[in-house]
Specification:
This protein is mainly beta and 171 residues long. It has 1 helix and 15 strands. The protein has one helix at residues 10-13, and strands at 20-25, 30-35, 40-44, 50-53, 68-73, 79-83, 86-91, 96-99, 112-115, 121-124, 128-132, 136-141, 145-150, 155-160, 163-168. It has a 4-stranded antiparallel beta sheet, with no helix packed on it. It has a 4-stranded antiparallel beta sheet with strand order 5-6-7-8, with no helix packed on it. A hairpin with a 3-residue loop joins strand 11 (128-132) and strand 12. The model has no long low-confidence stretch (mean pLDDT 93).
């Protein structure tokens, strides 16, 4: 078998931390990298450079937390970042973050994020929330889910400690 693994590390590439929790391509030659305690990194595949974004308490346009658990891109191309301190939207053009404090009550931060076909943002931790940009929280479930996906019929499939849950959002 052929193939070579090339490692990008803090030591050889400028990553802010070697503990990587999530990765998401941007589609423009850049890759978003969520780290544990190192914030968000943006890797430029064309130049090999890495930009690091960490929380700065003196800058309210910085990322809310340095533990980045998950990243999702919605149907409008907006970048959503799930952190230990809540939900942020990242603007790659301005390299700034917008924080959504109405979701700060998710006790342990947001562990995962998914976008459904209606462009609603599903957020999971000790509870699960559905957030609609421009409107706010539309649903809260007392269920701790691990991840969801939506099938072509609009059904939401979710994983949990109690098995797989099928949710019909139209009933």
């Amino acid at each position: 078998e052929k193939g070579v693994f090339t490692y990008l590390t803090r030591e050889n590439s400028g990553l802010s931390n070697n503990c990587i929790k999530t990765i998401q391509p941007l589609g423009d030659g850049n890759v978003l990298i969520g780290t544990y305690l190192g914030g968000l990194n943006v890797y430029n595949k064309n130049t090999g450079e890495i930009a690091c974004f960490k929380h700065d308490e003196n800058n309210k346009k910085s990322i809310a937390g340095n533990k980045v658990w998950d990243i999702a891109i919605d149907k409008k191309g907006l970048v959503w970042v799930a952190t230990d301190s809540g939900l942020d939207r990242f603007d790659p053009a301005t390299q700034t973050f917008i924080h959504y404090p109405e979701l700060d009550d998710m006790k342990s931060g947001i562990k995962w994020i998914s976008v459904d076909d209606e462009n609603d943002i599903w957020l999971g931790a000790d509870i699960t929330r559905v957030y609609r940009p421009g409107f706010g929280i539309v649903s809260t479930f007392k269920e701790s889910l691990w991840k969801i996906f939506e099938d072509r019929n609009g059904n939401i499939w979710a994983t949990s400690n109690r098995g797989i849950i099928l949710y019909d959002k139209y009933e």
